[in-house]
Every structure is written in C-alpha cells, then in structure tokens.
Amino acid sequence: MKVAVIYNLESQAVINHFGRPCQEQYSQETINDIKNSLAKGGHQVFAFEGDKHIIEKLEHFMTPAISGQISGMVFNLCYGIQGKGRYMHIPGVLEMMGIPYVGSAPDTHALAMNKVVTKIIIEKKGLPTPKFTVMERSDSDMRADMQYPLIVKPKDETSSLGLRKVTNEAQLRKGVKAIFDAFTTQTLVEEYIDGREINVGLLGNNPVVALPPVELLFKEDPRIFTFEDKYNISGRKVDKICPALLSKDETVKIQQLAIDTYNAVGCLDFARVDIRLDKEGNPYVLEINSMPGLNRDSSLVIAAKNKGLDFTAFINRLVEVAHERYIDQVITLSDD
Q1: Which residues of 185-219 are buried (b: 16+ CB within 10 A; e: fewer)?
Q2: pTM over 0.85, yes/no
Q3: What's the CATH architecture for 2-102?
Q4: Of 59, 63, 195, 293, which sits 20 to 30 A from 220 (CA to CA)?
Q5: What's the pLDDT score for residue 183?
Q6: What would the CATH number be for the domain defined by 120-127+193-290?
Q7: How much is the mean pLDDT over the chain?
Q8: Residue extents of the structural domains in the chain
Q9: Within the chain, what is the greatest distance between any pair of CA atoms?
Q10: Of all residues in the chain, what percent carry a pLDDT higher than 70?
Q11: 298: left (phi over 0), alpha (psi -120 to 50) or beta
Q12: Rounded distance, CA 91 to CA 64, Å?
C-alpha cells in the first residue's frame, strides 16, 4: 500500500506568519527511521512537509478508491507549523479530502490539547485526576482548597511546554505571569502528586490494548518531566523502566484507567496516558497525549518492544490498526 509520511521540519510555506510557531517536531533521523520501517513492511513510501502545498501533493499521491478498497494512507507525524490547534491542522485537511490516516481525528486532538476540557471530561467519567483550577492572569483569584506544591502549565500547549512546580503563592503568580507572557493563554493549576510517574501506551480501537506501563525515574528535582527533558536539552537524564515495578493488581488497575481515559476522549489507533501514583499507590490521570512521540526512546515505543513489537513491527502495526478501522467504511474519493 502507498503510505505518505507527513511531517513538519524545515518548511515555513504558509501564506502569513502569525500566532505561535510550533516548537515540536521529529528529527530527520526519526522521520527516516519511520520511512524505512514502512518500506520494510512492504509499503510504497512517500514523504511530504505539512505546509500550504500539502493538498496539491496529496492529490497526486492518492487515487480515488475503487469498490471501497483503500489505495493509500497517511502516516501523520506533523505537529503543525503555527497557530492554534496545531495537531488538528493535517487531520482536518485529510478529513476534508477523504484520505485515510493513522491516528486520532481533529475533534479528539482538540479535546486532548485543551487540558482543562480533558480534566473536566475525566472528572465527569468518574476517573481520578488531581484537583485543579484555571487562572486567567497572575492576579486572578486562587482556589482556596488547593494545597502546595502545585503544578502550573498552559491550558492548551503540549510536550510539557511551560510546565513548572511551585511551592508558594509568589512562585505561583510568577509562573502564571510567565505562561501568559509566553503563550497568551490561561494557566491550568493542579495539585502536585508526590509519587511515581507512569506512562501507559495504548494501541487499537476495538478492542483497545494497554501496553506494559513505563515508569519515569527522576534522580533529582524537579520530579516532573519537562519539555527540556523530552527534547534532551535539560542536561539531566530521566530513565525509563518497562515494565514498571508494579504488582499485577496495580498494573491491571492502571491499564484500565488508561483505557477508560482513551475512550472518554475518543482517541483512535494509539495514544499515551500519563499517570501519577501517590504515596498510597492511588493513581491520578495527569493528561492524555493524542500524538505521543514515536522516536525509539519514547515510552510508547519502549512499551511496544516489551510487548514483543520491535520498532519496525510497531510502526507497521499502527498502519494495520488504522487500516482495520477504515476497511469497514465505504470510502469514495471524488475527482472533482
């Protein structure tokens, strides 16, 4: 099958530059790694930048389906170039064009990117998440029943951008101001759960399979996984253990919590749920990532390997999972 890998790396081909530029991107090494894995899986692989020329490129790539047969698929690695709701940009184009793709739909990305909405949904489903509030600006009123330390982060950013731990009101208001100045958005403030951090990768649709939990080991403060940690620019190393050192009952409980969160937000094909365990072992959902990292040292890939799927097998399994989801649909693409 033809598979087009769409990514954001170098291109700045847009009509106008406005809003926040995207700070997330895959390295050329990882893009090539994924392309090579797909080729090893027998696919005919193409690669396109996710810029303003993507519609024209996809018109040449994709032919109309015949008798409901899928002639090609997109493997989306594109976090967007700029502006609001960046994760939604390429999936939205693909939905409009009628092109099958790997990963969640635009509406799910919208929910997952808005951490406040995600937490409201989680709470409404009866799932545990840290107590939280939203602050518009640094001089906004603070919820009285929340206890320090607290976590502050932009309500609609990803990859832990702007994330910090605060231990008093002065630090809190300084953190909220820094977030507003940098991102021009509201701040999600939540109670810090002092304990272990667990990532649970999820794969599939019906059924959804929870992969072995991965534990993040922090050797020094702050015991939070920052943007700088994720992109290896913090100067410290956060080790990952898979499977996490949990009892069978704890593992089952955490995996089910991750599956429930995945379903509550409406994810498709794959995702990652980040969970904290307090000192008593009670789990709390921090957030869900609808476009988790797929580089070789990511929690999702590490968990898949523990499950018996090496990198090449896992990348191709993602295509298979998405293909299975589309195969029951009648897909008709127009020449107009």
Answers
A1: bbbbbbbbbebbbbbbbbbbbeebebbbbbbbebe
A2: yes
A3: 3-Layer(aba) Sandwich (3.40)
A4: 293
A5: 86
A6: 3.30.470.20
A7: 91
A8: 2-102, 120-127+193-290, 131-191
A9: 64
A10: 96
A11: beta
A12: 18
